[in-house]
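go over this:
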Amino acid sequence: MKKLTIDRLEGKFAICRDADRKWFAIEISELPKGAAAGSSLTVDDERGTLSLAAEAPQKK
């Protein structure tokens, strides 16, 4: 599995980057519900799915 972060939305694409700073353009229609700029995604290559990554709770 790979983790991506949505950097920004441009037209009909979400511009994402991974930990190696590689860039990916994913059609917004393919994103899971609730995804937005700043969201973390998990890519499951075996299943061909995208899901929102669980976020660690913020410490105050």
Notes: The mean pLDDT is 91. Residues 2-52 form a domain with the OB fold (Dihydrolipoamide Acetyltransferase, E2P) fold (CATH 2.40.50.140). The two ends are 30 Å apart (CA to CA).
